[in-house]
Amino acid sequence: MALQARISERTKRVVYAFSAMALLLLPAAVSPLMLKEGIESAVVQEAYAATDTTKPKVAITKPSNGATLLPGTIQVTGTASDNSGGSGVGKVEVRIDTHSYKVATPKATGDWSTWSISFDEKDTGTHILSARATDKAGNKAWHSVSITVSSVSGGSTDKFGVKMIYPTKSNGEQWFMDMADADSDDRLDIGNSITKNSDGSWKIKSSQVRMNVHTSAGYDPDDIDTYNQKTMATQGYMQSSKDWRNVEITGYVKFNSASDENLSWYTRGGRHYDEDCEGTAYKGRLFYYSGETGFAKEQWHSGGYAFSSSKDVTSSIMDRWIGFKFVAYNTVQNSKTVAVLENWLNDEGDKTASWKKVVSRVDSGGWGDEGDHCSGSPDQIITWGGPIAGFRWDKASDVDFKWLSVREIQPPS
Questions:
Q1: 25 has a pLDDT exceeding 60
Q2: What is the phi-psi region of residue 242: left when phi exceeds 0, alpha when psi lies from -120 to 50, beta otherwise?
Q3: Which residues in the chain are classed under CATH 2.60.40.650?
Q4: How far apart are the C-alpha atoms of 315 and 347, rounded to whole Å?
Q5: Rounded CA gap, 288 and 309, in Å?
Q6: Which residue(s) pair with 362 in the sheet?
Q7: Rounded to whole angstroms, how far apart are CA atoms 73 and 102?
Q8: Which of 12, 135, 179, 221 is 20 to 30 A from 55, alpha carbon to alpha carbon?
Q9: Residue 136: partners with Cβ closer than 8 Å, 6 or more residues away
Q10: What are the tens digits of pLDDT across the range 108-167?
Q11: Contact, 237 vs 269, CB < 8 A?
């Protein structure tokens, strides 16, 4: 009550002393009531500032972090609160990416325990939703989530019943492992012996795994006419027009015994062995113990690596089933063909419910400096397809795997 009296008395003095002068200077659209309310708000903030220095709390509850949404109206809801005995939440504002903040609608006047707001977003791709709560003392708090706006709803599933992030291209290349007899697949070069588990999955015991998947055209290095990266970028492929280029690579794994290394799904090259310029690739990576994920760009094998920063997205993946997807596709930005890379994680090991995009990157140039080793630009973007897509890991002596697939996708427009 003492604080309220102090605010009320001070407000009266300020309003009576300055309102007449201010109204002569402000635009006609500003009414005496608006001026009074603005001054009262400032006085309230000043009065509480000395006693309330604790930030409020704010959270976006919907959409969830990593959600994929269709273009159009995006409904955003959340919660906000202040500390016990604090000044109380004064407002919640929300923005998308770096646009201006918009004030949300509270549950009721002065009640910000829940709030809502909507945005119209038609641009496909990754966006950041940020909420900012301000209490009446001027303390601020923020919370952000990442969402993907895609023209694909993601409701379709593949032949295993696994969710497809992007649709298969009409008459496009696709491969699914033979779960009944994986060892006899002539398009899968495993390179190691495998055994079938009682649950239908497969086991491999090797400290170095390179499972290479060929297109329907097969793999023959004699059919590769050039390794000149500028030429391959122009023609769009390394071996043939059927090469893996815009792809979604999916695999489920359970690491039973391993040292601290990473798995990687990869595409856009050939065999990483004798011919160094054949060994180009983009790779989506996930580390066994740290749960970090990121990307690698291999401009030639094996000295042309460039790495992205890694992001902590989960706990250790040891001794549990997880699903991992690596997506690579070309798009045009500012009249230039660029490569979009995405890693998706299913942390629960189910087929559809738990897929989330955990990291993405656009290679528009400036990444890597070894392209001239193979007659390309130093930072040559790998826009061509390759005859091999693959699944690899190192320093893991016991790994179970299932539902591996590679699909040529229709990229989002």
A1: no
A2: alpha
A3: 57-149
A4: 9
A5: 16
A6: 340
A7: 15
A8: 12
A9: 44, 45, 48, 52, 87, 88, 89, 90
A10: 999 999 999 999 888 888 899 999 999 999 999 999 999 988 755 445 899 999 999 999
A11: no
Helix axis angle for 2-25 and 32-49, nearest 10°, is: 140
Instruction: Check: CB of residue 68 under 8 Å from CB of residue 357.
Output: yes
CA 180 from centre of chain: 33
Q: Bridge partners of 401? A: 202, 253
CATH code at 174-408: 2.60.120.560
**Start-end of CATH 2.60.120.560 domains in the chain:** 174-408
> How sure is the predictor about 3, in pLDDT bands with cuts at 50, 70 and 90?
very low
Per-residue pLDDT of 41-54, as tens digits, reads 555 555 565 688 89
Task: Specify the residue for token string 């989530």.
Answer: 145
What's the CATH number for 57-149? 2.60.40.650
Whether 136 contacts 44, CB under 8 Å: yes
Is pTM beyond 0.70 here? no
Q: What is the C-alpha separation between 169 and 382, in angstroms, rounded?
A: 20
User: What percentage of the chain carries pLDDT values higher than 90?
Assistant: 76
Sequence-ordered list of residues with C-beta below 8 angstroms from that of 256, at least 6 positions apart, any chain? 318, 319, 398, 399, 400
Question: pLDDT tens digits for 174-209?
Answer: 999 999 999 999 999 999 999 999 999 999 999 999
Return the SS3 of 58. strand
CA-based R_g, the chain, Å: 28
